[in-house]
Amino acid sequence: MDLFENDDMKLINLLPRDGEVYYHGKVLDTLTADMYLDKCLSELSWEHDRALIYGKEIVTKRKIAWYADKPVSYTYSGYTKMALVWPDFLREIKQRVERDCGVVFNSCLGNFYSSGDEGMSWHSDAEKDLVESGSIGALSLGGARKFSFKHRKTGESVSLNLEHGSLLIMQGTTQQNWLHSLPKTKKDVEPRVSLTFRQMRF
Ligand SMILES: O=C(O)CCC(=O)C(=O)O
Ligand SMILES: [Fe+2]
């Protein structure tokens, strides 16, 4: 039996309070996940992310690619980015993720971490352009990485391992009450892509 499922095979909320996180485990078989990883690496438009931190420009090691139903713009950390339209294979993955999440997504922020030296520090995704209490469905491809949550007030933490072809869902009040991060690691890990499907307000 899976550690993340109870007797009724219903997924267990990984957070003890104030939010909901469900780990669906591997939703894609290895061959399909390998094929999608190759497509993500060769066909998505990866760029280093830029942010203004205290007026200073920071360029991330991690690369991002952003897709949406419309060529909308999204402003965060002082920069405005334009969304690209869905390539067919990404639309296919979106539909797969929607089936498991039971919600419809209108955008996807892809992240590409070429090694364990790249990660994402503590943050939440409750940006003003996201639907309040909307779901985020994150599909992982490539090298497995640790993912952590930390409660904003109590400091409680929860961590899990995100495997190749797996799906993680964050919903409800998770973004308001918890931070999450993808810690860097000294371990020799394969490159990783995460496709974070979102419900944006546009
Ligand atoms: O790479 C991941 O799995 C998570 C990325 C993330 O937190 C984000 O895109 O906001
Ligand atoms: Fe995030």
Automatic annotation (TrEMBL):
A GO MF term: dioxygenase activity
A biological process from GO: DNA alkylation repair
InterPro entries: AlkB-like (IPR027450), AlkB-like_sf (IPR037151), ALKBH3 (IPR032854), Oxoglu/Fe-dep_dioxygenase_dom (IPR005123)
Name of one Pfam family that matches: 2OG-FeII_Oxy_2
Annotated signal peptide: none
Annotated ranges, domain Fe2OG dioxygenase: 104-201
Protein name: 2OG-Fe(II) oxygenase
Species assigned in the record: Halomonas campaniensis
